[in-house]
Structures are given as C-alpha cells and as structure tokens.
Amino acid sequence: MKSLFITGIGSGLGKAFVEIALKKEYKVYALSRHLPEEFEGKINFVKCDLRALENIYKCMKDLLDTEEIDLAILNAGILGDIKEINKTNLYEIQEVMTVNVWANKVILDFFINESIKVNQIIGISSGAAVNANKGWGGYSISKASLNVLLKLYSREMPETHITALAPGLVLTPMLKYILENVDEEKFPSVRRLKTSPKQTPLEAAERIFNLLSRLKNDFPSGEYVDIRKI
Q: Could you tell me if 8 and 74 are in contact, meaning their C-beta atoms sit under 8 angstroms apart?
C-alpha cells in the first residue's frame, strides 16, 4: 500500500487530495487544524496548527508510524489580506511566512533528522511566486520563498524528488474569497482571475496525481513547475 503525508486537509485542494488518495488506496497521514467528518476513522490524523511552529515536530512524531513515505504534499497555506505592500505590516507578512514557509522547514527537517525516507515531495506553490501582482505582497513573497526553500532541500535530500508546483486556478475557499471580496479596479489581477479557466479541487487533485510520475521523470528535483505549462 502506498502512503501519503499531507498538510491542510480541512477544505479545498487538501481535502480533495485525501479523497483521491483514499480512492487510490493510499494510507494517509495528515496534519491539519480540521478533520472533515467523512475522513474520520479512514486516515491517520493529528490536529496541528502550523502557526505554532514549536508544536509541529511533536505532531509529526505522534502522527507517523513509518520509516518510508511514498508521497508528501506540503499543501497547507494562508493568503493574508490582498492590499498594497506599503500598507502591509511586518506582523501580517510574518504570519503568512510562518505557515507557508517555516512550517514546511520544520517538516522537512523532521524527515531528515528522523531518517524518514520520502520518495516524492510536492510543495504547493503559486503563480503568485513569480507574477508579483499588486496586492499579493505577503503571499507572493511566501510562495517565492517556498520555491527557494524546496530547491535548497533538494540539494540535501538526494534520494527524494522535490517539486514546487503551481496547480493553476482552483476554486478553493481562498480563491472564492478573492473573487467575491477584492476590488478588481484597485487590484487588476482579480479581473483576470474572474475570466480565467478554473478547476474544481477534485479536478486539480486528480490532475496532479496523474502527473506525479511525469514530474519525477521530466523535471529536475527542486524545480518550480507551473501545471498550466505542461
């Protein structure tokens, strides 16, 4: 039986990843603030708030009962407010960085320190990492940092294939909030989001699972890959 480790499964893409993984008969290990009712008794789950960096290592210890994981998906992430970078204070940016970047460092360090073999890691990145559109300040900075973090770890985890993957536009609660609440006149990128093709979380998760072997075979470990371009 294949195994999946994943963060952030309460809704959206993370929840969809677990649904697909269970259909494919993966053994699932998950860290998240919320456990959807339909997964109770079906997965290995530890409640963990990734903003509390000091608790993550223990959460990982409590969760994992294996020395090898086939696939790890670093999915958990927060958006922060869409607003001008000059109006975004450092505390707001730090909260986004904590979840989107530093929590993943703790997890990757755990894999190395505890000698957990991981065959493939997918870190959920974003086009925001390279587009740097007005209003996406903390989120863009965090995803660009995640890309570099994963490239750095690819140099230190030679037996693991690592990809920073931008999944395209997925109709998650995060995206729906942007489309419904952010001023498209003030932030023109939102207008483009409204007219661009979108996927449901299940469609996106299925597509990513179907591309796992291709990501591993066709792209160097540590690469940033935008799924819309393959």
A: no
**Which residues, other chains included, contact 210 with Cβ-Cβ below 8 Å and sequence gap of 6+?**
none
12-29 residue pLDDT tens = 999 999 999 999 999 999
List of residues 6+ apart from 153 with CB closer than 8 A: 108, 162, 222
CB 140 within 8 A of CB 99: no
Rounded Cα distance between 88 and 95, Å, is: 12
103 beta partners: none
**Length of the chain counted residue by residue:** 230
Q: What is the pTM of this model?
A: 0.96
DSSP states of 156-167 as a string?
H-TTSEEEEEE-
Q: Torsion-angle region of residue 12: left (phi > 0), alpha (psi -120 to 50) or beta?
A: left
Domain spans, the chain:
3-170+201-229
Tokens standing for residue 190: 């939102």
Q: What is the SS3 assignment for 183?
A: coil
For 113-151, write each residue's pLDDT tens digit. 999 999 999 999 999 999 999 999 999 999 999 999 999
CATH topology for the 3-170+201-229 domain? Rossmann fold (3.40.50)
